[in-house]
Amino acid sequence: MTSPLTTPASEGRWTPRLWGTLLVLCAAMFLDALDVSMVGVALPSIGSDLHLSTSTLQWIVSGYILGYGGLLLLGGRTADLLGRRRVFLAALGVFALASLLGGLVDSGPLLIASRFVKGLSAAFTAPAGLSIITTTFPEGPLRNRALSIYTTCAATGFSMGLVLSGLLTEASWRLTMLLPAPIALIALLAGTRLLPRGAREENHDGYDVPGAVLGTASMLLLVFTVVQAPGAGWSSARTLLSFLAVAVLLTSFVLVERRSPSPLIRLGVLRSGSQVRAQLGALAFFGSYVGFQFLTTLYMQSLLGWSALHTALAFLPAGALVAISSTKVGAIVDRFGTPRLIATGFALMVLGYALFLRVDLDPVYAAVVLPSMLLIGAACALVFPSLNIQATNGVEDHEQGMVSGLLNTSVQVGGAIFLAVVTAVVTAAAPAHATAQAVLDSYRPGFLVVTGIAVAGLLITLPGLRGHRGGPSLVVAGSTVKEAEAERPAVREQVL
């Protein structure tokens, strides 16, 4: 499928409308990431104002993750079948309305419900937006540049959420809920004029209703089980039975998808080694970073006594480095290819996490914390855009939404699973007599787990370096032109 916007891009010139299209999509992704991180700092104020227990407060965060992570597979395929523009704009409108309601409610359950609806709408805007980019910009340097800008907006939104929440919560926690509403509304109005009217997929075989039900149910139950496991106990009957139910649902989902004429996920896409590495890399990348941010926030606020704003500013160098690199990463990908950048990024991430293990109760920020933040920021700048490029290269236009939903699912499920694991490790190591040093010592196993997850991401990436000799990274079915000429059998094996 081609877009009326593709022609100028393919000639190397981006028209004002093309820039406007990218800006609208970036705004939606910025809001999705912003909403994940911004609410955390506001939770104490919300609990005090609405008289909510700690367990109820958890669901203000978990409700968003549940809707987002549980429905991404459905959101991606829906964008392919019903039209990316239509799905994106409808979901963005729901996101704006839920943001407005979330800032006005005076009830904990209603606030949690609004957060779930926002996560649900993000599960449709994220894969639809990514697939609009990949079907508008031709594969190669132009798409790489667009994706590097797009994914940088996501990383910047996640980082800026911490800073903005620290500032806004000083006035009112409601502002953290209301802020996305006007931005989403402006993006919606601009999107109605700028987004290309691409044709939806012609589906003569009907819709995969059983696959949609099973896939959505399995992801919802998986995220729900992982979120609840630290509180209920990993070995409790409730948790074990929930995981068993997830396994049954996923097995049934795979069996249905293998027989469906129009599957929610075409399982053949996972025959590609580069695709599998991108999905597993996304799990490890976001899972390690979310765990690191969680522990570091506790360390800075609970042990060092830093304010929410002080803590947010401590993370700022990482976010600033990502933002500054936004227009450069695409060119670096063109030169070195995604496998090298992902491996380099994971190596920097491992080093950054390892250096942070030196922290004590009186750290010198410039000597201890700042180097880690800069290394992690550089890693995010390299890894996140490269994973998106690697996952979407060589995929037909009519399956871009499916692959985008799968990648975003890997990101969100990785964050939920590994955050729960890190929380469980820290809780198990919690001291009976909570002196400051003892609490810090209980955090170290959690930081080691975070480092280990990043090491696993690096090891997953390394096989992709075999046979990679550099040169232009114009990708043909998951391989470079140079590799395609030298190793045609390997390329045919990657093509589904």
UniProtKB/TrEMBL annotation:
GO terms for biological process, alphabetical: response to antibiotic
The way it spans or sits in the membrane comes to: Multi-pass membrane protein
Q: Mainly resides where?
A: membrane
Task: Report the superkingdom from the record.
Answer: Bacteria
**Where does it localize?**
Cell membrane
One GO MF term:
transmembrane transporter activity
**InterPro entries in UniProt:** MFS, MFS_dom, MFS_trans_sf, Sugar_transporter_CS
User: Among its keywords, does the record have Chaperone?
Assistant: no
Domain Major facilitator superfamily (MFS) profile: start-end pairs:
21-469
Looking up Gene3D superfamilies in the UniProt record yields: MFS general substrate transporter like domains, Multidrug resistance protein D
Would the keyword Nucleotide-binding turn up in this protein's UniProt record?
no
Keywords in alphabetical order, please. Antibiotic resistance, Cell membrane, Membrane, Transmembrane, Transmembrane helix, Transport
Pfam families linked to this entry: MFS_1
GO CC terms, sorted = plasma membrane
TM ranges are 21-44, 56-75, 87-105, 149-169, 175-195, 207-227, 239-257, 278-300, 306-329, 341-359, 365-384, 405-426, 446-465
Q: State the PANTHER family in the record.
A: BLR6921 PROTEIN, MAJOR FACILITATOR SUPERFAMILY MULTIDRUG TRANSPORTER MFSC
| Protein's name in the database | MFS transporter
Q: What is the lineage of its organism?
A: Bacteria, Bacillati, Actinomycetota, Actinomycetes, Kitasatosporales
